[in-house]
Amino acid sequence: MDESLRLLAESLRSTMVGVSGSKLDAALADLGWLDMLDEIPTAAVPLVFGLLGETGAHAPIVNDVVLSAAGRPAGGAVALPYAGGSWVVWERSDPSGSTLDDLPIRRAPAGEPVPLAAGRRALGWWLLGTSRAMLNLARRHALDRVQFGRPIASFQAIRHRLAETLVAIGGAEATLQAAQDDEDLTCLLAKAAAGQAALTAARHCQQVLGGIGFTAEHALHHHIKRALVLDGLLGSSRELTSQAGKTLRDKGFAPRLAQL
């Protein structure tokens, strides 16, 4: 990461730690998010969405990614497909009344088809950041928690769960890095891999943290709920994997998706 991106990342992180929702949406606009999306999307999307996951903040900017890919003005909201064949709108206002995981996401009638590849890639980076946040919480707990006179990080079962989580995150990151353009199949697979990595992280990190991970005072359950919501948006990992299989079956061959 060059110096300018490093400074931008620090500014974004400090902003996201303090605010969320419509306030963060406005703050990102002031920091030039829409200009970054237009001029340097390959750097801006992983950076901004990854930090949303790591900090636990939220903003409705997946709308901007989808609208930009459709050639429409950013700053609005668009109906998006959700797991199970439903549709939702991620509103740009703060939530009031019934919401999904305290996010301003509401069920909506089916909307017009929009390009989903760029949005799936962006959500993949968000899920990856969320996975890293869960892994960091579990790792810190494993180092601090002492049983039988030694940290639980020394127990083989704990090490295996943390290692499997790290491998899943690494695989998802490699898949996302390979999805540098808006090719539908690569972005579909990248989002599916990121969703599966987040579910793996949620399962293993919950086991490492034990009962404390369920408490309202601990951050883990917030990240788990966020991962479940994001996995369902624009297609769940299970649905996307099935869709990818159908696509390959219909094509009759597997195209080269990455240069190794």
UniProtKB/TrEMBL annotation:
GO molecular function (one): acyl-CoA dehydrogenase activity
Gene3D superfamilies to which the protein is assigned, alphabetical: Butyryl-CoA Dehydrogenase, subunit A, domain 3
Tree of life domain: Bacteria
Keywords, alphabetical: FAD, Flavoprotein, Oxidoreductase
SUPFAM superfamilies: Acyl-CoA dehydrogenase C-terminal domain-like (SSF47203)
Acyl-CoA dehydrogenase/oxidase C-terminal domain mapped to chain residues: 116-237
UniProt key word Cytoplasm: no
UniProt key word Glycosyltransferase: no
Name this protein carries in UniProt: Acyl-CoA dehydrogenase
Organism from which the protein derives: Mycobacterium kubicae
